[in-house]
């Protein structure tokens, strides 16, 4: 390597870091360094008040030796929620974005209305969803009954309660997914769509061969972020089911929250957080590896 | 100035459209043109109705008397109709709700402006430049999302105590500006769909990367920037945990903390809570409506070439 | 780099810095408008903080005003009030961990034990026994001290307690030809109660139209206690609730859910009660405001169990953190807030039953349009037939394990969702508690050891709690 090249490389690195420096420094300071104590406390018995007591790997042992059946149960529930919510949520987001991506009259209002659930108070969402899914007085069972079907006791059975939570989550976040996909759609060059139309491509063909490839970076981002977010679902569960019935919707962060703040086992909760971190890191890494096969960048 | 970016590939050609029967397609398109808007409207109205139901309940509850809010079969129209919830909200002798609105507004505006700048800068670096440590840094940003906030708050809180920043708005303004993975990721993905030819042409003309960022990438990214602005607004305006934990002076509280007063472990005052939630949603909707003229492209990207 | 981009960059930076400066200015402006009250020289300020809804906060404001006038102004002590939202233990815990709590702090009663053993709050026994500035405990109900004592030592007091009782729909009662008892001494027997629940419930097919009863899972402790059982056996070395009577009593109570006389826990009680579809619901005092005007209601006691009448009340309790700037002043402020003037404010708001007995019995508490029988609430703090109405429940690490295993966690949720047999529920709960006892090597003396180790006991010989 010549001296000239070294200097160029150094300048190139410096310039790159000038751009990403602020966000990386900020993230380090406020989102990464504060995590480090969690790693330490995960090896302790600590109530958050008195001095932590070092207990080696006993928190991790408790998790993986089956002493805490709720660890496995909540992880499985969380995985079910994620698999049920993320793909459908994204597909609905794409469908809605395509629906409203035009300049027809009144579209501004329609977009705002679809966005509303995302900003509606979660308390209202909780109250309404419990009413919608009520077995005796609920809208859904009333509709089913008009077709002669006896609807389930939605929030009274573990599996249907999880389904109700997933449906509510999809509904509550559809506006979020829609606006992000809508932004992604604006990156699709109109010349290509016009060219494809002139070539005689139909709607679906245009979507799958022109629009979708340009959307893949957006979809990839949604997939990564929604997966990370879904593994940390909490507030919706809190207002809708409180983790019940039984342990039917008892998700991972609910368990972590309960251990940390109800039982005051901050050490154990920290260990739960570290394991979650490892799981998410693995999942994200796999998603990133697989993305090279389907995500299309310029 | 040298062109250093070695990552360039030629703009990948769009996968070739499937051949279709020409005549049949023309006919279908003509039908589509007539049926299109109608079908779109029907779809929109159905989705909008599903979307709006809880909001309507919230709005109607805010005009109901306390005992009428929670009922077996919610009535849409309040009877009796009352303004007492709104009156109580702004004049309860305890909480300066109007002040909360002001606090929320100024925090939100500052975060939006700051975040757009920091995230756009970072996103340009991640999307357009090649340098050492770039991918590792991006990995770090993603990894920082993987630990639940509720545990991070303990060390952060004691750090803020030591720095004398507890009971100030600092923890609600600065970290959301300088440490936001979502915005960086969103803009990075969008920047990556902008054809590289634009940069290349500008670089050949001797423009710096900062110049390309400001005068080519940013103007082309209005839809993404508007989206980030709106989502940041929602995110900061509705942030509850941060203000709850870091503030203890009632005059510094934000709207979500103010609303949390109406909900305790034992009971919820639905009337004033829904009145407050309704007031709180108005600015969000206004910002959305204002920003959305940028959501769909005005001057199309092709116009610049 | 071209000058153009430099300029743009500088402008960007400038506008950014300008805004940041505006932000700082805004922050400091807000600080000026803050709660520092500017008391006259020579006065001592005591900060007081509690969670609560605006109605509650307004009441605290009025209580403070009453206490100022009654005694604090004379002592030149000024209470600075700091309202806190919701029920957020996380914030309060952070404040305790970092020493930023108020000088006088109102918290959940189940937090006292941990705060005491980790040396975060002051032992109050000595100050309480002081002949001039202490308390005359004969004027207060026993729960004032015993409810929140830690191993018999006093780290906090409860000036008022939100009593639990059965809210009932008067119309549904008269339709069924029932008359509710009006005091704990006359509480229904379990058989009478059972009869009433079944009379009040209206079913069509396998659906219930009107439920006779709704209760929360925490009544289970009370049911076990009423069946003559205790939470712990053998000097706290073994989990209790092992008697066959306990199994029978809980199973009976749960059968109401299984057989459709009571709703499962996912069903909200308030719409049912407001809609006249629920006859009795077991609730704390503060739901009164949310009951629909169309419902004519009152309160009545929980039935007598095989042994005695009982209830399960919870409390918010008042502590003085060790970081208090002037503990003596904080104590005097606390005392004044337990005094007659402040207690009357609390009584009039029907927020909680004041521990000051004369006020709890006075018209300030009982003379309200609803409920007519406010004495059912008031009596819940005392004794009936020589037995406390309020159920004792262990606190501390084993108390936490008990609550987790029998009341709050998924085990209890499974039971009241009808997903778990009562015998399995009791077995799982007992196994979990016994495992915790074994892990900690717990026994009846461990609690005091914890207090001593945490440096909590400044005066180990002093105890004020009634035996």
UniProtKB/TrEMBL annotation, chain A:
PROSITE patterns: ABC_TM1 (PS50928). It is a multi-pass membrane protein. It holds the Pfam family BPD_transp_1. The lineage of its organism: Bacteria, Bacillati, Actinomycetota, Actinomycetes, Propionibacteriales. Belongs to the binding-protein-dependent transport system permease family. GO terms for biological process: transmembrane transport. Keywords: Cell membrane, Membrane, Transmembrane, Transmembrane helix, Transport. The chain crosses the membrane at residues 16-36, 79-100, 112-133, 163-187, 207-226, 233-254, 266-286. This is Carbohydrate ABC transporter membrane protein 1 (CUT1 family). It comes from Kribbella rubisoli. GO terms for cellular component: plasma membrane. SUPFAM superfamilies: MetI-like. It is found in: Cell membrane.
UniProtKB/TrEMBL annotation, chain B:
GO terms for cellular component: plasma membrane. It is a multi-pass membrane protein. It holds the Pfam family BPD_transp_1. Residues 101-291 form the ABC transmembrane type-1 domain. The keyword Hydrolase does not apply. InterPro entries: MetI-like (IPR000515), MetI-like_sf (IPR035906). The keyword Membrane applies. This is Multiple sugar transport system permease protein. It comes from Kribbella rubisoli.
Automatic annotation (TrEMBL), chain C:
Residues 1-30 form the signal peptide. GO terms for cellular component: cell envelope. Coiled coil: none annotated. Its main location: other. InterPro entries: Bact_solute-bd_prot1, SBP, TAT_signal. It is found in: Cell envelope. The keyword Manganese does not apply. Pfam families: SBP_bac_1. Keywords: Signal, Transport. Belongs to the bacterial solute-binding protein 1 family. PANTHER family: ARABINOSE-BINDING PROTEIN-RELATED, SN-GLYCEROL-3-PHOSPHATE-BINDING PERIPLASMIC PROTEIN UGPB. This is ABC-type glycerol-3-phosphate transport system substrate-binding protein.
